[in-house]
Write a structure and sequence with these properties.
The structure is a homodimer. Chain A is built from 18 helices and no strands. The first copy, chain A, is globular and about 75 Å long. Helices cover about 85% and strands about 0% of the residues of chain A. Chain A has helices spanning about 5-25, 35-70, 75-115, 115-150, 155-195, 205-245, 260-280, 290-320, 325-350, 355-360, 365-380, 380-410, 415-435, 440-485, 495-540, 550-585, 585-620, 630-675. The N and C termini of chain A lie far apart (about 50 Å). By secondary structure, chain A is an all-alpha fold. At the A-B interface, helix 5, helix 11, helix 12, helix 14 and helix 15 of A face helix 5, helix 11, helix 12, helix 14 and helix 15 of B.
Chain lengths: ~675, ~675
């Protein structure tokens, strides 16, 4: 049987599991009248935002498709692959979010029965997302294979799919990220800091916008993000494998022919899907609502998936008669990914010293807490960098540069279950908010808090893992680009002014990108703050609870602002490699990607872990340390959390997409840029 | 006449001017009994710190000298050059600080006569430092030339001088930076934030430590820093020039022989000294105390120096019969340096939009202000990066990689006057503090505030300029290293796993270095805060002004902590290139330096400008905006300023030294590493 057919079947199996999970979730009780009312408001806001976002993205996709189709070196095939990739990415985000917005209320209802039931409902909603991402990814790539695999330009068509997926992802991640963090920080600053009312209090006008944000940012945005990570890592390996079969500078013995170049990454990914499905079914807890038990349940799932994936990868390598070195490369990627995730957990969880130190510094005020947290983020770059370097060296040793690429696949092969544990978090978070707004008894809120807190831990692990994989994937794409564009080994060296200039310019871009996204969140939350303040001032009886705030106003502000402000960072990411490539030539572009990948990696890790540790330092104080909620220490910690929010949920994760998107654009442009000297 | 003799004479002339300025300053009235008492306390604290710091550095220098002397590939000559460089660097810092601590009080006295007299005294104190740095630098290098120029290993001896200078500089900058910012933020957090007393209030126990810190950090630390920038840029150009005369891959027509390789950079630098002396004498204002007039006076000096330097550089190129392309490279460096300085001013002065936007965001609290300022810092990387890239491309176009090195000298050639305008700032700042403590009338404090505010502007410009020059110098050193170690052009490419691994590891190091220095400041200021709080609690009558605080306790805490905590970041900087070089080989080390230079550059610019803009946003609010002093907006701005302090005055400037130090260590190790495969 054609191995791609096996992969296709595994992808379909993933979608079947997703449907089963979705059916289970939708069968659940929708909860009280109040819960249903809030759920309906969230659903309306989220769908309205996604509708407007996808309309803009539709225009963008059509425009780019026309440009790609018109360029003689690329043509309609690349254009079609691009559109297909964009649609698949949008679809993965849409389906995941559709289920999430229907599960928030159901989880709030389920958790009234038991914690276990709450976990089951919310985790299965996350599993829908996880399975959709990997299922659609594998199916999309398989379809491309069957349509185009006899085309002589096949190698340049496939990356088009990745560009489509990544383009949608960057806008979805940035737009959703701006929405969710502007609403969140706006609600927190007026509600928690100024008015002293609890989080998710119904009197806060921004509270519904905050819930909507969790869905459009942390679910739909993240879905598109993980989808592109997944397909880009597979595409990078395929391309490099195909290039290896005809390149003079690469080792041909590893990948004997074009078919193996395709089959191997697809089979490893397919094995990962089966492993993830098994892992998902292993996630179950007893009736005792213990935090440790919950975490163990999730860990059991992800750990089993990792071990199974390693086994499947070995089988794939064995049956495809590939070099055994490739298996070691996959294994080192898989292990490095797990360890990077654990290191993120160490630097952000209040079970460990770094976050406890940050919490301690809250005693001397917000400034010292900010400095400590930021330093922690910077320090946390050590394990991921060292692990990535070890992975690179080992993978190279066993399987040349092809090993680096396939190590990236190894890292991402358990994405199905990783994404499930990630996407479950915002559902639990929202369920907690709905419980708060519905005046349910505090012990119910405690249960959702336990679920939410678990979600924060898995989110930190997931982020670390996503960054590590992004670094390896971007590197593999860069390597493919240098091969595809025909850069001579002797040219790509530091004595060339174009390479140096490219590196400097590339290193600058992630910084500018972060500045733009941070400012976008800042500006939008400024508007939200003023709106919430206005409502407290002008609506009589709001603070006393006798009048209701106008939630729709904040939803409308966030929607418009996020849509408007996602454009500039997205377009800069897409245009920079094009501009650098045409202006300074392909050599400068290679330098540019090198600079962007390294700085982007450092900033992404720093932002994610600084943000995560501030968040958890605050949570630690809320457990009663240093005076607990309402103390000066807590106020200082809220400042840290607010600073960290856009860093960890808007700028940081978008950087992952950014470095891959720029690299894959370079790869697609390779045939156009080959031999082009640059305009300057 | 031997051109080096001319350079030596210019250097001596610089020291003559320094003595003249010093004599003028020391002749001035020392002020009232109260002023003399405070000055004496500052002097005592500063000299005690420097004494302890130099003792540790002495041990370090002797240890390294022995190691260098024992290594067969290096030997006693390199060891001697190293010790000599270390002594020269320490001397420049010591002399500058000795004058500064004697001028603080004299400026406080002079400003009582007139603003103009205050500017004259404080600026001439800065000029002593400026002239000492360039004078000692040129004289030191000339002496080395006369002793060693006929030695066949001459090319490897000279960088030893740079390593000595840079090693002292990194410890002095980090140690001084920890001292000054821990004292400053500690004093501010308890005094301004908690107790609501003014800055520099005599009731604050940390106030003398704060003054001492200004001298040991902003004067002595900066002097050592600028000394190493200056000599490293000259050494980088010389080495590259000398390599060009025998390298096969470099263009020989630019630098025909070893002598020209030496003469040209020395002559350009010597011309810069003369230009700076003329510029310094052009700094004078009328009696009307206008901020604009003050700024214009300084600008007239620096601008005239730049124009004159360009003229002298042309003459040097002409008379040494070097390629005219070299002149264009020097010119583009000079212009890029000035523009980078101006861009720093734009991003940090409250005359412009970025800082005003940050001030505006104070209305929604500390968190939004932090985010806005940090985004501003990240955004401010655009002009320096773009200008450095343009300088690289133009310099390369006209004079190959030698052009890049000499563009760095062009950027730094006006260092004499730049350093004078920089070193005058802390003197004016301290004078203001002494005025505050001596109960002098508010109009006197207004005058010192005007001088201080001017100092902040010149400091921002100077920092931008220092970072730009550091980038170019480090790059030139890296290029020299690749040549000296004999890296084949075709090897140093991204397909090599060692290069990639080196880049990733190198990119990590500046982040870790920043984390360590930020934490060091955080920890020390934590101790200071607790001590100041304790004194307010335990010393009866302190708040009422009837009792005096124990200033010495805070001075002692800062001294011990700064000495202790400067060691780890300094040693890591020194050891990393050694470890990477021996463990992963010379190729990985080249990648390592590339990664460190780019990330270091980005972080240095971000930290300097974010810090500067928070500082000035606070100053803008203090002029009355958004409620002025004591308002909630002001409290938010104080948080921003406190976060920015260690970023802009400890971590940021130390990064400049760090990237150069690691590069020059690599250059010195080149003969040892050449042909070495790496242990792994």
């Amino acid at each position: 049987m054609n191995p791609i057919l096996i992969a296709l079947i595994c992808g379909v199996l993933g979608l079947v599991v997703a449907s089963f999970m979705a059916a289970y979730v939708l069968k659940q009780d929708q909860g009280s009248e109040k819960i249903r009312e809030i759920s309906a408001a969230i659903k309306e806001g989220a769908l309205a935002f996604l509708g407007r976002e996808y309309k803009i993205l539709g225009i963008f996709v059509i425009a780019v498709a026309i440009i790609l189709g018109v360029l003689p070196a690329l043509g309609w095939r690349v254009s079609m692959a691009f559109v297909f990739g964009a649609i698949c990415s949008g679809l993965a985000g849409y389906i995941g979010m559709s289920i999430a917005i229907r599960t928030n209320g159901r989880t709030a209802a389920a958790v009234q029965k038991s914690l276990n039931q709450g976990l089951r409902v919310s985790f299965r909603s996350g599993a829908v997302m996880g399975m959709c991402v990997v299922g659609i990814g594998i199916i999309g790539l398989s379809i491309l294979y069957f349509i185009f695999h006899s085309d002589p330009n096949f190698i340049f068509i496939i990356p088009g799919f990745g560009v489509g997926a990544s383009s949608v992802a960057i806008f979805a991640r940035v737009g959703g990220g701006i929405y969710t963090k502007a609403a969140d920080t706006g609600a927190d600053i007026v509600g928690k800091v100024e008015k002293g009312i609890p989080e998710d209090d119904p009197r806060n006008a921004a509270v519904i916008a905050d819930f909507v944000g969790d869905n459009v940012g942390d679910v739909a945005g993240m879905g598109a993000d993980l989808f592109e990570s997944y397909v880009d890592s597979i595409i990078a390996t395929m391309t490099l494998g195909m290039i290896a079969t005809f390149s003079i500078s690469l080792d041909k013995s590893l990948v004997p022919d074009m078919a193996t170049a395709w089959f191997l990454p697809m089979m490893v990914a397919a094995g990962g899907i089966i492993a993830s499905i098994i892992g998902i079914f292993l996630v179950r807890v007893g009736e005792k609502p213990e935090m440790g038990a919950l975490l163990n349940a999730l860990r059991r799932g992800t750990f089993s998936s990792s071990v199974l994936t390693a086994g499947f990868a070995f089988l794939a390598v064995y049956f495809l008669k590939a070099d055994i070195g490739i298996f070691w490369a996959i294994l080192v990627g898989l292990i490095a990914g797990v360890l990077i995730g654990e290191s993120a957990n160490y630097f952000t969880s209040y079970a460990y010293k770094p976050t406890l130190n940050i919490a301690e510094s809250s005693q001397t005020g917000g400034a010292t807490l900010i400095t400590r947290g930021f330093a922690n983020g910077l320090m946390s770059t050590i394990p991921p960098i060292v692990l990535v370097v070890i992975a690179i060296m080992v993978a190279y040793h066993f399987a040349d540069i092809y090993g680096v690429a396939i190590a990236g696949i190894g890292m991402l092969s358990t994405l199905g279950i990783q994404d499930a544990t990630d996407a479950y978090g915002p559902v639990a978070d929202n369920a907690g908010g709905i419980v708060e707004m519905s005046d349910l008894p505090p012990e119910i809120r405690e249960r959702t808090d336990a679920l939410d807190s678990l979600g924060n831990t898995t989110a930190a692990t997931g982020k670390g893992f996503a960054i590590g994989a992004a670094g390896l994937t971007a590197l593999a794409l860069l390597l493919s680009y240098t091969q595809a564009v025909g850069i001579d080994v002797s040219q790509f060296n530091l004595l060339d002014p174009r390479v140096i200039s490219g590196i400097f310019l590339g290193a600058m871009l992630p910084a500018v990108f972060c500045a733009m996204t941070l400012n976008a969140v800042g500006k939008t939350s400024f508007s939200i703050i003023n709106e919430v303040r206005r409502q407290f001032r002008e609506i009589k009886g709001l603070m006393e609870g006798t009048a209701k705030p106008e939630y729709g106003k904040c939803v409308a502000i966030c929607t418009s602002a996020a849509i408007k402000q996602m454009l500039a960072p997205g377009l800069i990411t897409i245009l920079s490699p094009v501009i650098v490539g045409f202006l300074l030539g392909p050599l400068a572009l290679a330098g540019f990607l090198t600079g962007a990948i390294t700085t982007g990696f450092i900033l992404a890790v720093t932002f994610a872990n600084a943000g995560g540790s501030w968040d958890n330092a605050k949570k630690w104080i809320e457990t009663g340390a240093y005076g607990g909620k309402g103390s000066d220490a807590h106020k200082a910690a809220v400042i840290g959390d607010t600073v960290g929010d856009p860093m960890k949920d808007t700028s940081g994760p978008s950087l992952n997409i950014m470095i891959k998107l720029m690299s894959i654009i370079a790869l697609v442009l390779a045939p156009v840029l080959a031999g082009f000297p640059g305009l300057i």
